[in-house]
Each structure stands twice: as structure tokens, then as C-alpha cells.
Specification:
The complex is a heterotrimer of chains A (322), B (262) and C (291). By secondary structure, chain A is mainly alpha-helical. Chain A has a domain of 217 residues. Chain A has 14 helices and two strands, in the order ααααααββαααααααα. Chain A is globular. The radius of gyration of chain C is 19 Å and the shape is globular. A two-stranded antiparallel sheet of chain C has the order 1-2. By secondary structure, chain C is mainly α. Classes of the chains: A mainly alpha (322), B alpha/beta (262), C mainly alpha (291).
């Protein structure tokens, strides 16, 4: 079985092009948008591990993003811990917390699982906003320090973009490695038919926990980077509606598709911005909701599925080549 | 000298609320044996399979494999212990390809860790080649090698049943449980399946079959166990069971005459 | 002691409102197998409709209430036809997400039409405080409770004593067989959705004079309704009622004795506890729907 060297080439080309963007597009606001795209890509891809591969559903992704952000921010502001240490700590914290859903979720399916994760998401947000002594509640945490790399403090937008892009690259690498390994096969079997998977020796418990903690860890990492970038965070950036948007990105791109996830994250981050001049806040949300419904109704396989149908296999397969 | 049974159950019972699906069921499968499990619909046969493979936990009683207790273990543990199965209602991984379905089972025998597979070490790559070759062998064994890239849900019914067998065999079991493998098949397909079963037997694998097709049961099984309403009502060689009045009354009836006329 | 009773009574009243919303949701789930995220918006729209009819159009209050109820039912029928019927048979996640989209559209649409500022719906009569055994009750709250109870009782009778109610119950058990036995499943689905939506709208109508009305009030309410539905057992109407009351009282007591902020956590914490201990719901007996 050949590992496709050509695929790696495409990815590297894409990465190089992406890295060059901030030097072509010098408008600060657009650069900020590109950075936000990066965060959304990481969130969409990590959620895809759970939804696309393991076939579970979770409305709690924003909560893990938030836990990572808060952990990292608190460690940096209260204990003066360096960004590079606080970041993985945030990831680990999110992963550990995800076990709180992961373990009960072992027995839950479908609607029950969806609502349970929703409840968890809400609890996290409420706890963060009520535990004022720790998190300063609704006022949030401000003055989160920027990371330092040697003598360089990462504060210029171009540098932030590169950092965010590095995170994206790591996440994509992670997802690709998963999709080419035995993990993918076992997760997909779990997704397709849990009973049959167990009967064929798949430790579905282990798989579900790996999927939950893995996706939470990455989301937590993203949170840590985000907190430092945006300088101040509050509980309202991590609500269930954010979770919903990320879920939309996963579905719009095509559940299980890495490229689809990237494309849809970018489009769905930029789309509201393009609409901004022509529509006020609420109207944009109405359009967003409308888009959500239309996609679910007419393109449930997402962009990846759509392309796969009309062109065969131009877009890399949803399922791993074994 | 009586050899140690491969699979043995004692006093096995399963209650669902007030419903008694199985009660005090005791039976054994010897190494390399083909045993048929027959009985009218609802007798508890598939429930028994679910108990053996760990999808259900028995209300009472014990199941042992090679002398070690497996009842109460999880399904994946039991699969790794060497028990595999096919399903009455086809339970394939629909959106995965035929080859991927079987490769999953083949990975049961992987000697590499999940981590090394994730990293993509040379060893894990070699093993992927090896397991893929093995999976392809099993596909050829049941005659669907040419369909390797097709999505499992797009297969014809007969091919899906064959895929189930290939998938179950790829785990390298000592004991395979076939749940109505010829359900919905015409006589020529049934004949094909009988050939597969015989070849599986030639490899030394023990087989336990639930079947309604008496021709197959009489033709292949060395031992037959009869269940009715959750209790064993007869067991023995096919010819004896065929003549047992209790069995005739519960189940064989007219079919016995057909079988005799073959 | 007086305060305690006050809290409990307030809790019961809140529980009554919750139960109207939750029963509608659980009924729709039982019969149609749909979790409608936009259910909260029906509650919100019920309140806004009263605003439109009673305040803007200056219709008599009672008439405004009835019209709002009917409006809610009508919207329910439209939603079922437009958004949920096309998605029948698709994986559950699709319906959930589509209903989320609906929720966003309806909530923000209302904000566009009515502006996001919270509105107050004046009560049709002066709120006379009552005093019974040394405890203060507000007439309004008592009235709300009485009406809620009446509606729930009426609904229970409907579900248990009428043909349609029977059809609903059989469809909740086994859809295919119901269809094969000649039940007009499409019509029953419509009626169930209309009824469930009307219940939510009624809750909004009742709550209008009590709280301020704002476009996003549905969002919070629906999440609690989800928690209640899970606690009571999905599709289980008595369970939803009991769970709603328990939640109402628990929240009220918690707000009184621990602090207002944390009372929001109670719903979800209880829900997760139930999911861990008795996933089929507090009022289920024996083997229930597979979770």
C-alpha cells in the first residue's frame, strides 16, 4: 500500500501559501480575521474527531475551548506561568474535564448524548461565570500576557498569525495521522455499528474516551492560544451557540472530511464579516440560521460529500485509505 | 477419553424482566466440532449467541471457553479470547469498504500498539501490509475479493452475508458462531455457504450454527442441540434428533419428512 | 417558615410553567421522535403575541390570550410541515441542528421585528396580594398556577381518553405498526406538534405579565425544558410534570438559601445525575426505551 507522497506535497504547498498570506494582505482587520479562521479550523477539526470519526455528538466543544482558555489565562495571570507551559496545561485540563462527560456518555446515545453534552456545556459556563473568586465571573480575565519566544514577544499580527497557523498545521497533522492509522478504522467501525465493532474486538470504551479526550485536548490548546491573543476573555465567548457554530462547520464541510472542515471553517468565519456592512447584527444571525437549515436540508453530507458526488474523488476521501 | 470441551455452558439463564428467554441451558462444543443449534423462532437461540459473545450478561449460570470463564466479560474481550460471530440481521460497517470491514477484524491480531500505528512507525506500516494481505485472503476465501473497494452497504444480499463470514474469520477465532448464515438464500447460494463452512471446519475452527435450513443442519453438523421456549429439549447426532418426538412436535414436523426424502 | 412556604409556592408556580413547556417538548419527542430546539421560541412567541394582540392591537386580554395560543399552534403546524417533515428519517443530529437553526432565525427575527429591548406586558387586573396563613401570595401567581394545572389536567384527559390521544400513544410506542393499523400518522404528527407548540405558547402567555419579555427568553427556557424532559423520561408526560415541579421547587429553594446565580446549575446537574443513575427517567418502570 502506497503512502501518498503527493498528498503531503499538496499540504505543504497549501501551508506555504497560507504562511505567505499576511505579507500579501496587510490590512490589520483582515489579518485578525485570518487568525480567527485558524482558531475555528482547529476547533472544527478537533470536533470532527468526535463527530466524524467516532460518530458521537457533543455540544460541549465551546466549553472545552473555554476551559483551556481560562486555565491558561489563570496560570499566566495568577501564577506567572509561561505561555508555553500554560498552554498544554489548558489542554490537559480540558481533556480531564472531558472525562466527566466521556464516562457517563459511554452508556448514552443519540438524543440523550446530545442533551447530556448540552447540559455539561451549560454547567461549565455557569460555573465559570459564578465562581467569581476564581474567574472574576462575568467580568472575565484581562491582561493575559503575550507569549515570548527568546527575545521576541509575539504581539505583531503577522507573528500571531504564524503561531495560529502552526497550531492549525499541528492539528491537521494530528488528524491525518489518525486517519491513516488503525485508530481511524476502529473509530469508524464504532461509528458505523457499535455492536458489531465490539463483537470484532474493538474496545469501544477506550475508543470513545480517546475521541472525547483527544478532541477536548486540542480544543483546550486552541483556547490557551486564543486567550493570549485576544488578551481578555469572558464566559460569553464560550456559550452553547459557539458550540453550535462549530458543529455547523463540521457538517457544512462534511462530517469526517479534513479538507471540508478547513474550507467550511474559513467560509463560515468570513461570511458574517462580508455580511456586516449590508446587514445589522440580528439580520446576520437570521441569515446564519437560515444557512444552517439549508445546509442540513440540502447538503447534509456537507461540501465534501457534495464534491464527492459530482466529481468522484478529487477531494481526498472522507474515509482513510487503508 | 473425552476431550476438554472448547465451549461449555452450565445452568445458563437469561431473564428480561418477566420474560424467560433461556433457563438452565447447558451445552458444549468440542474442539473442531460443528454443532447446530435449532429451535422454533423465539426459542432463545440468538439470545444464547449474545450471551456467549458478551453482548448480554447472563442472569445466572456460566460460560467457559477452554476452561476459563468468559461470561461477564465484555464483548471485545471475548472476541480477543477467540470467539467470533456473524449476525442474523446483517451488521456490517455500511459506509466502509468491503476490505476495510475485514481489515478491522484482522487488526485484532495486530502486534503493534495503537500509538505506533498513530505515529506511523516502519513496523506498523509493515504490519498494515501484512494484515491487508490477510484480509484480502479472507475475501478471496468467500469469493468476494473482486469487490474489495465497494462500500459494504452497496453489496448484494448474498455478498453481504459472505462478507460477514470473511469479517468474522479474519479475527482468527477458535470458535465461530454463525447466526442463520443462509437466511434468505436460494439453494445454490446455500450450497456455496455450506462449502465455506466445511472449509472453515477444515481449518480447525469450531463452529456453532443457528439454522432453520434442515438440509444444511443434517448435512453439516456433527451434533445438534434443540431449544424450545428457552429450554433444551434434545441433543445428539442429527439423525437421532430428527427422530426425537419432542423435537418433531416442537419444530421439525413436516420438514423432517422433507429431509428424509432427500 | 413563612419564607420557606413562600419559596415552595413560588417554586411550584414556576414548576407549573416549566411543565407546560416540557410536556409539549416531551410529547413531540414521544410521537415524532424529534427534539425541537426551537420549542423555546414558541414560548417566546406566545408571549410576544399577547403583546401584539393586547398592547398593540388593544384587544381584550382574554381574547388576546386565546389568539396567542392559536397563533402558537399555527406556527407549530407550519414548522412541522416546513422544517421537520422533510427531515424525517434522517439521522437525529440533522433534526437537532436544523431546529437549532430555526431557533436562531426565530429569536433574532423577533429581535429584528420587536427590537431587543425587554417589554412589559401589563397584567389585566390589579395584582391583589393575598394572605393565607401568614404567607403572601400574589393573585397573579395563583391564577397562573390554577390555569397551568387546569391545562395539564385537560391534556392528560385528552391523551388518555380520546381517540387522538390513543393514536398519539400508540405512535409513540411503535410508529410502523400504528401506520399499518390505519392511523393517519401524518395528521397525528401535525396535531401533536400543534398541541405541543400551543402548550409552549400558553406558557409564554401566562408568563408575560409576570416577567419581562425579550427575544432570547426562549433560549434559556428550552435548555431547562430539555433537562426536565430527560429527567422525566423522554416521551413520558407524567414524568415531565413531576420533574418540572421538582425543578421549580429546587431552584426556588436554592435561590433563596444559596444564591440566585447558582440556581441555573441545578437543572443540568440534576439531569446529569438522573442520566447516570436512572437514564430512563424518574417515573419509568421496568425496561424503557433503550438509551
Amino acid at each position: 500500500m502506497k503512502d501518498k507522497p503527493s498528498a503531503w506535497l499538496w499540504w505543504l504547498v497549501g501551508l506555504a501559501l497560507a504562511a505567505g498570506l499576511p505579507y500579501i494582505i496587510t490590512d490589520a482587520y483582515t489579518q485578525h480575521l485570518l487568525i480567527l479562521c485558524c482558531f475555528n479550523i482547529v476547533l472544527a477539526l478537533s470536533l470532527n474527531l468526535l463527530i466524524g470519526f467516532a460518530g458521537q455528538i457533543s455540544f460541549a466543544h465551546a466549553a472545552f475551548f473555554g476551559v483551556g482558555a481560562y486555565t491558561s489565562a489563570l496560570l499566566a495571570t495568577r501564577l506567572g506561568i509561561s505561555f508555553w507551559l500554560a498552554l498544554p496545561a489548558g489542554g490537559v485540563m480540558s481533556a480531564v474535564l472531558s472525562l466527566l462527560i466521556g464516562l457517563p456518555s459511554l452508556r448514552l446515545r443519540g438524543h440523550y448524548l446530545a442533551i447530556a453534552t448540552l447540559g455539561f456545556q451549560e454547567i461549565v459556563v455557569i460555573v465559570i461565570s459564578q465562581w467569581v473568586s476564581l474567574t472574576r465571573g462575568p467580568m472575565g480575565i484581562t491582561g493575559i500576557p503575550k507569549p515570548r519566544l527568546g527575545r521576541l514577544t509575539i504581539s505583531a499580527l503577522e507573528h500571531w498569525y504564524l503561531l495560529a497557523l502552526a497550531l492549525v498545521a499541528l492539528t491537521v497533522l494530528f488528524m491525518i495521522r489518525v486517519s491513516r492509522s488503525r485508530l481511524a478504522l476502529e473509530l469508524l467501525a464504532l461509528r458505523e455499528n457499535e455492536v458489531a465493532a465490539r463483537s470484532m474486538g474493538v474496545n469501544t470504551v477506550k475508543m470513545k474516551l480517546i475521541a472525547f479526550t483527544g478532541s477536548a485536548f486540542v480544543a483546550g490548546l486552541a483556547g490557551g492560544v486564543y486567550a493570549s491573543y485576544i488578551n481578555s476573555i469572558d464566559p460569553y465567548s464560550f456559550t452553547v451557540w459557539v458550540s453550535a457554530i462549530i458543529i455547523l462547520m463540521v457538517y457544512a464541510g462534511g462530517v469526517g472530511s479534513i479538507v471540508g472542515g478547513i474550507v467550511s471553517a474559513v467560509i463560515l468565519t468570513l461570511l458574517p464579516e462580508f455580511l456586516r456592512p449590508i446587514a445589522e447584527d440580528q439580520f446576520r444571525m437570521v441569515i446564519f440560521g437560515g444557512v444552517l437549515i439549508l445546509i442540513i436540508m440540502f447538503m447534509p453530507e456537507g461540501m465534501a460529500g457534495f464534491f464527492e458526488k459530482i466529481r468522484g474523488r478529487l477531494v481526498p476521501r472522507k474515509f482513510p485509505e487503508v | 477419553m473425552k476431550t476438554e470441551p472448547l465451549l461449555e455452558t452450565t445452568g445458563l439463564s437469561m431473564f428480561f424482566g418477566g420474560v424467560k428467554a433461556l433457563e438452565g441451558f447447558a451445552m458444549e462444543v468440542g474442539p473442531g466440532q460443528i454443532v447446530g443449534l435449532i429451535g422454533p423462532n423465539g426459542a432463545g437461540k440468538t439470545t444464547f449467541f449474545n450471551l456467549v459473545t458478551g453482548l448480554l450478561k447472563p442472569s445466572a449460570g456460566r460460560i467457559s471457553l477452554n476452561g476459563r470463564v468468559i461470561s461477564g466479560k465484555t464483548a471485545d474481550q471475548i472476541a480477543r479470547a477467540g470467539v467470533s460471530r456473524t449476525f442474523q440481521n446483517i451488521c456490517l460497517f455500511g459506509k466502509l469498504s468491503v476490505l476495510e470491514n475485514v481489515m478491522l477484524s484482522a487488526y485484532l491480531r495486530s502486534r503493534c500498539s495503537l500509538l505506533s500505528s498513530f505515529i506511523g512507525t516502519g513496523r506498523s506500516r509493515k504490519e498494515r501490509h501484512r494484515l491487508r494481505a490477510e484480509a484480502e485472503r479472507w475475501l478471496d476465501f468467500v469469493g468476494i475479493g473482486h469487490l474489495a473497494g465497494v462500500k459494504a452497504e452497496n453489496l448484494a444480499y448474498g455478498d453481504q452475508r459472505r462478507l460477514e463470514i470473511a469479517r468474522a474469520m479474519a479475527t482468527g477465532p477458535e470458535l465461530i458462531l454463525l447466526d442463520e448464515p443462509t437466511c434468505g438464500m436460494n439453494p445454490s447460494e446455500t450450497g456455496e455457504t455450506m462449502k465455506h463452512i466445511r472449509r472453515i471446519h477444515d481449518q480447525g475452527v469450531s463452529i456453532l450454527i443457528i439454522e432453520h435450513d434442515m438440509k444444511l443442519v443434517m448435512g453439516i453438523c456433527q451434533q445438534v442441540v434443540v431449544l424450545d421456549h428457552g429450554a433444551k429439549i434434545a441433543e445428539g447426532e442429527p439423525k437421532e434428533v430428527q427422530k426425537n418426538p419432542l423435537v418433531i412436535e416442537a419444530y421439525l414436523g413436516k420438514t423432517k419428512i422433507d429431509a428424509r426424502d432427500q | 417558615m413563612g419564607i420557606f412556604i413562600q419559596q415552595v409556592v413560588n417554586g411550584v408556580v414556576n414548576g407549573g410553567i416549566y411543565s407546560l413547556i416540557a410536556v409539549g417538548l416531551t410529547m413531540i419527542f414521544g410521537v415524532l421522535d424529534i427534539i425541537n430546539f426551537a420549542h423555546g421560541e414558541l414560548y417566546m412567541i406566545g408571549a410576544y403575541l399577547v403583546f401584539v394582540f393586547a398592547v398593540l392591537l388593544k384587544l381584550p386580554f382574554a381574547l388576546a390570550c386565546v389568539l396567542s395560543l392559536l397563533g402558537g399552534a399555527a406556527l407549530g403546524v407550519i414548522l412541522e410541515r416546513v422544517a421537520f417533515r422533510p427531515l424525517q428519517g434522517r439521522p437525529m443530529a440533522n433534526q437537532l441542528i436544523a431546529s437549532m437553526g430555526l431557533s436562531i432565525v426565530l429569536a433574532n427575527g423577533s429581535a429584528m421585528i420587536f427590537s431587543p429591548t425587554p417589554r412589559h406586558i401589563p397584567s389585566p387586573f390589579r395584582d391583589i396580594p393575598l394572605e393565607v396563613w401568614g404567607v403572601n401570595f400574589s393573585l397573579l401567581r395563583v391564577l397562573i398556577l390554577v390555569i397551568s394545572v387546569a391545562i395539564i389536567v385537560g391534556l392528560t384527559l385528552f391523551v388518555n381518553r380520546t381517540w387522538i390521544g390513543l393514536a398519539m400513544r400508540t405512535m409513540a410506542q411503535d410508529l410502523t405498526t400504528s401506520y399499518l393499523m390505519g392511523i393517519d400518522t401524518r395528521r397525528v404528527r401535525q396535531i401533536t406538534f400543534a398541541l405541543g407548540s400551543a402548550l409552549a405558547a400558553t406558557a409564554g402567555v401566562l408568563v408575560g405579565p409576570l416577567l419581562v419579555v425579550e427575544p432570547h427568553m426562549g433560549g434559556v427556557a428550552v435548555l431547562k425544558a430539555f433537562a426536565i424532559v430527560i429527567m422525566g423520561g423522554m416521551g413520558n408526560i407524567p414524568g415531565a410534570i413531576v420533574a418540572a415541579l421538582i425543578l421549580g421547587v429546587a431552584e426556588s429553594l436554592a435561590a433563596g438559601y444559596i444564591g440566585a446565580g447558582f440556581k441555573e446549575v441545578i437543572a443540568f446537574t440534576l439531569m446529569i445525575l438522573i442520566l447516570l443513575v436512572k437514564p430512563s427517567g424518574i417515573l419509568s418502570f421496568g425496561t424503557a426505551k433503550k438509551v
